[in-house]
Amino acid sequence: MRRLAAMGLATALLALVWLVMPPTGLPLYDGIGLPQEPYRYLQPPRGQPNGLPPTAIHRALIVAHGNSPIYKVSTGESPPQAYFIMQYRALKILPGVRRIVIDVIAVPPPAPPPSGSKFDGNIYRYSVTTSSGAPVPLRGGPKVGVELRGTGTPGTPTVALYVGGQWVKLPTLVLLGTNYYLTNVRSLGNFTLLLPAKSTGGSGGGIGGALPLIIAAIVLVLLAAAAILLIRLSRRRATTEPSS
Amino acid sequence: MRAAGAPGIGALRSQPAGLALARAGIMLAGLALALALRLDVAGGLGTGHLGSGYRPIAAGLVFALALFAIAWAARGPRWSGSDLIPHRHTGRVPRNAMPVATNAGGGALALAWGILGAAVLVSFPLGFRLSGAIPGTGFPFGDFPLWASIVTLVAVAEEVLLRGVLFAAVEEALGTVLAVVVTAAAFALVHVPLYGPTVLPLDCAVGIWLGTLRVVSRSVVAPATAHTLADLVAWWLA
Q1: CA of B2 to nearest chain A CA: how many angstroms apart?
Q2: pLDDT at A148
Q3: Phi/psi at A95 (nearest 5 deg)?
Q4: Is the CB of B139 inside 8 Å of chain A's CB atoms?
Q5: In chain A, what are the domain boundaries?
Q6: What is the pTM of this model?
Q7: Quick one: fold of A42-206?
Q8: Closest by Cα among A75, A76, A92, A93 to A84
Q9: Rounded distance, CA A210 to CA A190, Å?
Q10: What's the mean pLDDT when you consider all of chain A?
């Protein structure tokens, strides 16, 4: 009976995490990862075949009591190419607004990349509007995130926002071990990833580049601790064994 | 019925808990090395992505073989024929025995637990998928057999190491609750480089759930079955 109760508790915990976590695409419990489809370009660069078109996000949300909900949504590729993430009350909801619409769509570049840089994938236009089409402003603070998938071109891209007629690079978080790049934003608009034009090979440092060192350090510490423990226990056993 | 050369239960109980803890530490270190190897083969290390084409398949195969090797090398003295559980005739198991059900009755029961477990694990993403909260179109059947065989191998290898050998070692040293917690944490951390830190809470919960299933079913077969089936369904849910 205790074991079944434990099973029930574990199932309740699992359900709770599923319900509390924003939907983030299908998380695998394990496996080798699903096949990654090639990056879907709106305008394939020279030498790239015309693949499937990129997908878009168009999602309507009900707003209760003037507070926008916590929400994460992605485009439909596998893996997704663009995410929109917002914390609770990330938007300034005007009185009377009951419904908002989130749109993320790949658009042609409004301007070429800055000199010394190149686009790493599509330009995505992010917008949140009311039912009547009026833009919904963001509150201050890091409450809205834009996450883009890179094309896999070597190098570490930076998220950039097109504002005031130019591309402005934003502080970018490289998501450890993945090909995703996240930034917090204070306004929405056209976002893309920018790579150094002459980038060749390697991750270019950042968190991803430190991963092998971190893993190696952890392994060494664990191995050393285990070895010390084994030696001590062997000595203790040798001293406590009765002499024959 | 005891395997030749294997120590009896009485002798096993006299093994110092510290040795079991040391074995657990070695297993965790080996797990980290196997993960680094997997990422390296997949092209994940230093490039920020997991590669494409057949590289993830090769990486999965290498990872699974590495886990089996670690499990075999660190299995400890408990892994013997007389310790296999659950026993059909008694339903009881030696405490801290390596839980692999091989007799027909125990094996079938563990399998049933596993299928039931898979249904629970799949029900949540299936619900989100059907409600449209999780986008996806599924994949065509063509590559499924190859993908499925590697996924099965990886899932079983993970369970044999985590909920099998590692669980037994930690349980002996620290008790059942901590065995569930430690193996769940290892399970969750293994997935972070592959799927990102956002899956950490979910994989922790899944790890606790699979650990509890192992305790309830008294067998590593149940979590291995649940884990494998839940993975395979992802092909159509993605």
Answers
A1: 26
A2: 94
A3: -55, 140
A4: yes
A5: 1-33+210-244, 42-206
A6: 0.58
A7: Chondroitinase Ac; Chain A, domain 3 (2.60.220)
A8: A75
A9: 31
A10: 81
